[in-house]
Design goal:
Helix content is about 35%, strand content about 15%. It is of the alpha/beta class. It has one domain: Rossmann fold, CATH 3.40.50.1950. The protein has a five-stranded parallel β-sheet, sandwiched between helices. α3 (about 90-100) crosses α4 and α3 packs across α6. It is globular and about 45 Å long. The chain binds flavin mononucleotide. Flavin mononucleotide binds near residues 19, 45, 93, 126 and 162.
Length: about 180
């Protein structure tokens, strides 16, 4: 559990966005989180940047989107996270995160979150061919063992155009609710 936030300061949620088609709708999660009293900053994977409207998201959050590492000596563009929601979470990022690979800023933040005790949830969005790979289930098991909670969206059929209508962005907040005590 994170330290209590000062009474006049909202808790800060990092939304980590990966490169899946549904990422274009991440504004829905930002809106829901802001309505639930979170301040929000977005961290996109380098591939994920191509799936989102950066200008619209920066206007919505009031913070720059982070994707690359800052230069040494540069100020940190975002406040520290009180919680993290990875949405959408790709096959690629889930497996690399579980393996402790930290070759994107998003993965660096995720890999450190466990040691820093930051409550973290993830909404995977992938197809059934990806989900069939044995590494994926091992990754979920490892991350669950680290306290990460996962959304319930079932993998969609490959090359079937996804299942964006079944992706429930607000589930990230539902999953976080029992993990945080400062969001209300
Ligand atoms: C149009 C398009 C849609 C994609 N949708 C998904 C998806 O739903 N889930 C997924 O895991 N990967 C998807 N991918 C593949 C990922 O973009 C790819 O694995 C990428 O390396 C993931 O990078 P990231 O995990 O760093 O964001 C998609 C790729 C493209 C081009």
């Amino acid at each position: 559990m994170t330290e209590p936030t000062a009474p006049d300061k909202k808790p800060f949620l990092y939304v980590v966005v990966c490169a899946a088609g549904v990422a274009r709708d991440v504004g829905k999660l930002i809106t829901a989180a802001q309505e639930a009293n979170w301040d929000v900053g977005v961290i996109a994977t380098p591939q994920g940047l191509g799936f989102i409207d950066a200008t619209a998201i920066e206007a919505q959050t009031g913070y720059p989107i982070r994707s690359a590492w800052r230069s040494p000596g540069d100020p940190r563009p975002l406040p520290p996270a009180d919680a993290i929601a990875v949405a959408p979470a790709t096959f690629n990022t889930i497996n690399k995160w579980a393996a402790g690979i930290s070759d994107t800023l998003a993965l660096g933040i995720l890999c450190e979150a466990y040691g820093m005790g930051i409550p973290t949830v993830a909404l995977p969005y992938l197809n059934s061919a990806q989900a069939a790979h044995p590494a994926y289930h091992q990754s979920l098991d490892r991350l669950r063992g680290m306290g990460v909670r996962f959304g319930s969206c079932e993998p969609h059929r490959p090359r079937a155009g996804g299942a964006a209508e079944r992706f429930r962005w607000e589930e990230a907040l539902d999953l976080l609710e029992p993990l945080v005590s400062t969001a209300r």
